Amino acid sequence: MREYELMSIARPNLEPEQYEAMQDRISKLITEGGGEITGLDIWGRRRLGYLIKHESDGYYVVLSFKGEDELIRELDRVLSISDDFLRFKIFRKGKQK
Fold first, then answer.
1. How many CB atoms lie within 10 A of CB 64?
2. CB contact set of 23 (below 8 Å; sequence gap of 6+)
């Protein structure tokens, strides 16, 4: 399994319970897909550098995990169709050229 990092920016107008539910849904998707969560860093609400989908603030979360390529594709698909996220990016950790 390879190590990855998911950085996501969620809409700032959600309730705290909704943020927890989103995080639980992502965690469940990773573990059910054969992955392993290795870290979670919640940055909270921060100002964006520019407007994204008419929002000036976002709720930042960085999640570290291990998984296979198929899990990454599924995670990308699920997050892409969700309206709760302004932006997200999945990074592969490790060797850089």
1. 16
2. 40, 61, 63
**Which candidate, 31, 17, 5, 92, places its Cα nearest to that of 59?**
17
Going from N- to C-terminal start, the domains of the chain cover 2-92
Mean pLDDT of 38-63: 94
- Residue 71 pLDDT: 94
Domain over 2-92 is classified CATH 3.20.20.70: no
Task: Locate the DSSP E strands across the chain.
Answer: 2-10, 36-52, 55-67, 85-92
> 26 near 63, Cβ under 8 Å?
yes
Q: What is the C-alpha separation between 17 and 21, in angstroms, rounded?
A: 6
CA dist 93 and 97 (Å) reads 12
- The pTM of the full predicted model, rounded to 2 decimals, is 0.86
